[in-house]
Every structure is written in C-alpha cells, then in structure tokens.
Amino acid sequence: MLLILLMASASTADSPLTSTPFHEAYMDLPVVADAVEAGMSREIYEVLMSDQYPLDVKVAVINAMGWTFEGQDNAARFMEYYMEDHDKAVVDENYMTGEELVLLAYMVSMDDYFSMSPIDLEGEGVLGMTGVELAHAAAAKVPDDFTVRMISSLILAQEAMDYDWGYVFEVVDFVMKEALERNMREGAIDMIMDYIGLYYEY
C-alpha cells in the first residue's frame, strides 16, 4: 500500500524537469523574474551569454521560462542567435564551452521534456544532439561544477522516468554526495531535492 501511495505521489509531481521550479529561489533578481513564462529573445540570449551573471542564475532563467505540453522552441532560437553571433553554419560540441552546453542541454530538454529530442533530428553538430547527449558533453567538460552536474543529473533523471524510477533519485543524489562547491542557492537545491526525494523508496 505504501509503494502505491509513493507512486501516486511521484506521478502527481510529474517529472524531474517539470516539477522543480527552483527559479523561485531567485525571484529577487529581475533577470529571473522577467523570464517567467517568457520565450527566448535576444535580450534573454544576451543574459545567458553574459559574464555578468553566474551559471546558477542563467539556469534559473531557463527554469523560469518553463515548459509546455505542446513543446516550444527556445533552444532553436538560442542557437539561431549563437550561430549568427559566431558566424557558424555548424556548431560542434567541442566549439562550445561546458557552460554553454549545459544551458543548451537544459533548453533542449525543457522544450520537449517527453523525449528531449534534438533541435533538428537531421541536424549537424549540436543541433542533432539530444538533451541527454548534450548533458553528458557538458558534464565531461566541467565535471567539478556543481550547477553543471546538477542540471545534467536532472536531465538524466528525466530520461530514467521511462525505465527506472529508482535511478531518478540515485543520479541526482550521487551529485549531492560529491565533494563539489555548491554554487547554487540552498533554497534552489532544497526545491530540487524535495521533489527528487519522492523517488527514494524505489
């Protein structure tokens, strides 16, 4: 009976990507508050690419932009700006920084959280990479960055929803147990773990 109740709770909570509104811990920042339910724009792109804001604020902006059942195209629009600014027809994963890769991975995954499919199924370079593939690439480039690892783990946890609910907890908990400097606000981490904790018993 307990297992059934836990499954019902997890189902109601939905999924790792859609049920962790950690941007709420950053709502004192105008760049985050202004991004709530917004679509990708040149202004938001400039925030994501700016050295003025740390990575945790940037992922909070993406989190604030949210998701829809119908899907959205924030990642595609981000890459349009990126390719224009870098004068690139194709962008390889090796060209992007680990920070840029995790931002793209998060947007790709939030745009189509059911499958986290690429921006373009037949696209070259990062346009043809899934959210999971981009997350792996980001974590490989900056394995010691807590924010990169946490966002990457949420993406991997989302994928695990299809086959192993126990792994949903394990993959995020693994990052929490590593000796990494926690460069996200504690309130944001708590919101993530409050949801992920629903999968502890699996």
Explain what the structure shows:
The radius of gyration is 16 Å and the shape is globular. It is built from ten helices and no strands. It has one domain (about 1-200). It has about 200 residues and is mainly alpha-helical.
Comma- or semicolon-separated keywords:
202 residues; mainly alpha; 10 helices; globular
Main pleated sheet:
none
Provide mean pLDDT, rounded. Answer: 92
Q: What count of helical segments does DSSP give?
A: 10
Distance between the termini: 14 Å
Shape: globular
Oligomer: single chain
Number of domains: 1
Radius of gyration: 16 Å
Strand residues, percent: under 5%
Estimated helix fraction? 40-55%
Low-confidence stretches: 1-13
Helix and strand content put the structural class at mainly alpha
Compressed to H and E, one letter per element, the order equals: HHHHHHHHHH
Total beta strands: 0
Write the topology of this structure:
Elements lengths: L1 H12 L16 H4 L8 H8 L5 H11 L8 H12 L12 H14 L19 H11 L4 H15 L4 H13 L8 H11 L6
Brief overview:
The protein is 55% helix and 0% strand.
